[in-house]
Amino acid sequence: MQPFTLNYARPAVQLDVTTPYAYDSGLQLNVLPDGRIAATDHATLRALGTTTSTAGSKTHFDD
Amino acid sequence: MTVLILTSEEDVTADMVVLRLGEAGVPVVRLDPADLTNGVALSGEYVRGACRGQLSVGGRLVSMDGLRSVWVRRPGTPAARAAAPSAWLTEESSQALYGMLRCGDARWMNHPDAARRARHKPWQLGLAQRSGLAVPATLITTFPQAAREFAERFPDLVVKPVSGAHPQEPPRSVPTSRVAPDTDFTAVAYGPTLLQRRIAKRADIRLTVVGDTLLAARKPVDPDAHPDDVDVRFAPSVSPWQPAKVPPRVAEGVLRYMAGAELAYGAFDFAEDADGVWWFLECNQSGQFGFVEMDTGQPIAATIAKWLAGQGSTGDGCARGERGAPS
Fold it and tell me: Smallest CA–CA separation between A38 and chain B, in Å?
């Protein structure tokens, strides 16, 4: 009784990634351990894929 | 006047906009509704014919009538991180927060009512048609026979979730997938199924719309790509996104769509075929943009910041107060 569409489902990729930045409530920005603003470090963002359109988000449909 | 950003702390894409607003000297208050009653507080009173509300987070206090705009980016479920979370507390918190914000004059990106409607992909297809955009032949059905007949008329099909959502127990992804010619459609009876004519694409298009500013990016399909690699999110990436020019008729259609949807922000996905036609696939009302900006250098975050600050072109989605009213 599985819906047709689920015949095409695949296991979600579990991104077990620890982000190297933390939220600074004073700046209202995420900050790297060396104090730089995470959003300015494109190499890190690319590596983590945190700004990327991804399928399978638990909480958001809109990617 | 302050810009209110509703999003999670880990939303580093929102940081790109916060930075631009800071550079422009625009006050920002950022909070996650998930922290209501546990780090985020609100209050509002309706006295002598006036409504006055306040929000506080992290030592910041902002009056709701001092808001110039509200960016609903990636907010958590209201009160999800409260000391004693419950479905009841979530509903109470949601109604308190969004109900009071609706009373104000701030403009929204995007208004929650417009956003809720805009998430319905079948509705998107109809609006895209009415807006003059090219929409691939599509069937949404629970009738197996309708699916069979559609497959006879359009032998090369893809299937994708109607909602765009993915099952979570266990976590699975459902990419847009090619349907084999001899497929058995019996299971269509067990769930609404979206079948669509496959576009033999030569590029994927991501068109980000902010107000009436259009920023398009194009990713050529690898000439050696397998025809089954339909979904750009799952296909191997061989080239970066590149800035693209929007065909005038598409631009007109997209702006009609934005006006019809009452959206201030939208991220459109198109498939470009061999003739250069842009086929509408969907419009994500809160779609990601950081990856496009990093590849193309297009100033998407700055454009959003300008819009939120009230300096950008407005478009029809920027309702001030009531939805759809001119700003």
Answer: 7
Q: How many angstroms separate the CA atoms of B118 and B262, rounded? A: 9
Given a cut of 50, whether residue B319 has pLDDT beyond it is no
Beta-carbon separation of A8 and B175 below 8 A: yes
ipTM of the complex in this document:
0.87
Number of domains present in the structure of chain B: 3
Report chain B's mean pLDDT, rounded to a whole number. 93
Q: What is the pLDDT of residues B167-177, one digit of tens each?
A: 888 889 999 99
pLDDT at B315 over 70: no
Q: Does some domain include residue B122?
A: no
Structural domain of B208 = 200-309
The verdict on a CB contact (< 8 Å) between A6 and B174 is yes
Whether residue B10 sits in one domain with residue B98: yes
Which tens digit of pLDDT belongs to each residue from B121-164?
999 999 999 999 999 999 999 999 999 999 999 999 999 999 98
Alpha-carbon distance B138 to nearest alpha carbon in chain A (angstroms): 15
End-to-end CA distance of chain B: 16
The helix or strand, by DSSP H or E, that contains position B282, with its residue range, turns out to be strand B278-284
Q: What is the pLDDT of residues B172-224, one digit of tens each?
A: 999 999 999 999 999 999 999 999 999 999 999 999 999 999 999 999 998 88
d(CA B267, CA B73): 13
Residues in chain A whose Cβ is within 8 Å of chain B: 1-14, 19, 21, 23, 25-26, 28-30, 37-40, 42, 45-46, 49-63
Same domain? B32 vs B90: yes
Q: How many CB atoms sit inside 10 A of residue A35's CB? A: 7
Partner-chain contact A28 B172, CB within 8 Å: no
Show the CA angle centred on residue B39, arms to residues A19 and B81, nearest 5°: 65
Pair B87, B154 in one domain: no
Are A55 and B190 within 8 A, CB to CB? no
Residue B263 sits in a domain whose CATH number is 3.30.470.20
